[in-house]
Design goal:
Layout (H helix, E strand, L loop, with lengths): L3 E6 L6 H11 L6 E3 L7 H5 L4 E6 L1 E2 L3 E2 L1 H12 L8 E7 L11 H12 L3 E2 L3 E2 L11 E2 L2 E2 L1 E4 L5 H18 L3
Parallel strand pairs: 1-2, 1-3, 3-6, 6-7, 6-11
Antiparallel strand pairs: 4-5, 8-10, 9-10
The chain binds flavin mononucleotide (FMN).
Flavin mononucleotide binds next to strand 4.
């Protein structure tokens, strides 16, 4: 059976809402939920033990990943870790009004890092219903993962997460 881990960088805990839904939907153990700020220290030991990695980050600065992702992301890129054979899916919170010029761009940046390292990305969703100016998470007319906005569209969050999890389950054959 495939081993699933969740790696999430969050400041206020909003992105954890998605992580919690993943835990419930896939029956993931608590020890396999890695808060990047509190629990993470090693790419090789912690990330590469999983077959499927759910990668979460809220977006900061000008489309940046949460600060807890900065070093791991550089490490994966610089040390050329091999994620081939791994499946990854991305999620995170953002703000499409105040930061609509880079809505949830952290998902796009992390997508680039992990796919360049050989991982296969799943969990793209239609961008219908989203309103933003620009996002690095947008690829080929879709979003490369589950983006939520609890500031402006909290009423859409539960449905967005549920649809994304359905698509993950069908892509994973579960
Ligand atoms: C200084 C600052 C910069 C931000 N930059 C972005 C951004 O570039 N893109 C975006 O979508 N959201 C941006 N946000 C909004 C956060 O991502 C949003 O508040 C999110 O809900 C935080 O989620 P978390 O609680 O999981 O960390 C920014 C917020 C602050 C305070």
């Amino acid at each position: 059976m495939s081993k699933i881990g969740i790696f999430v960088g969050t400041a206020g805990g909003t992105s954890m809402k998605i992580a919690d839904a993943l835990v419930e939907a896939f029956g993931i153990d608590e020890e396999d939920v890695i808060n990047m700020e509190e629990d993470f220290d090693d790419v090789e030991d912690q990330m590469l033990q999983y077959d499927i990695l759910f990668i979460g980050s809220s977006t900061w600065g000008q489309g940046d990943v949460h600060f807890s992702w900065v070093d791991p992301q550089l490490e994966i890129e610089d040390e050329e870790f091999d994620f081939s054979g791994k499946t990854v899916a991305f999620f995170g919170a953002g703000d499409c009004k105040k930061h609509g010029e880079h809505f949830c761009s952290a998902l796009g940046k992390l997508h680039k890092t992990f796919t360049k390292a050989g991982a296969k990305a799943i969990g793209f969703i239609p961008k219908d219903g989203y309103e933003y100016e620009f996002s690095l998470a947008e690829m080929d007319g879709k979003l490369c993962g589950c983006a939520i906005d609890e500031h402006n569209e909290p009423e859409k969050t539960d449905e967005r997460i549920a649809l994304w999890i359905d698509s993950l389950k069908s892509e994973l054959g579960q």
